[in-house]
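User: Some background: our group keeps a shared notebook of sequences we're curious about, and every so often someone picks one and asks for a predicted structure to add to the entry. Today it's my turn. The entry only has the sequence so far, pasted here. Could you supply the structure so I can complete it?
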Amino acid sequence: MSDVFGKALLDYQLGNYTEDITTNSSLDEVDCIPLPYLFRNYKEMPKLEQKALQLCKGSILDIGCGAGSHSLYLQKKGLHVTALDFSKGAIEVCKTRGIANTTNANINDYNGTKFDTLLLLMNGIGIVGKLNNLSDFFNHLKSLLASGGQILLDSSDIIYMYEQDNDGGYWIPDGPDYYGEVEFVMKYKGEKSKPFSWLYLDYNTLQTAALANGLDCELVFKGEHYDYLSKLSLNSQ
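Assistant: Of course. Here's the predicted structure to add to the notebook entry:
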């Protein structure tokens, strides 16, 4: 299976950086993922990510760790962190950067260990793909939570990407799909990934889904552009 993301990370780690990852989406947007940004240090991270890292406690599972920048910071602070990613190349990079505990796995197949903090950053909830997958995903995360544990995740409300009418409402295409469901293809050095679904979730929808699945949901940080950080924990009732 093609690992376009992992190949790009490995190239950067090994000093073969010549271009960035480009993405095409169902929103008719062409964008790029600058590889140096994926290797940023704590001071270079947005305030939202810094806040999330400050809130981490106990044993931590960094889900969708990528190049491992968050895990590396937490490990240097003396916390016990496990970096998990589906990309084999990403995990190789994490090991090369000195992260002690790594797992190359799909989070949906991962089980057996419980953590005090489940960390999903850089629109980490996006890996759910579709809104109707959210309940199963939350139930799986609950099985990985230790007593008193927390889930820290960020996302963005992409309503701003749709046209506004004169009344301030938004023109959202008709159809059964939630407007935050986006299809992506990654491209790097002539290779293309398979199309994959990515979920951008507005906070109210997240909160409703969390409560429906026995999780309390708290807004802990609001970014400057429709982005936010939330903390989920097992319902105390």
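Suggested note for the entry: The longest strand covers residues 145-156. The two ends are 44 Å apart (CA to CA).
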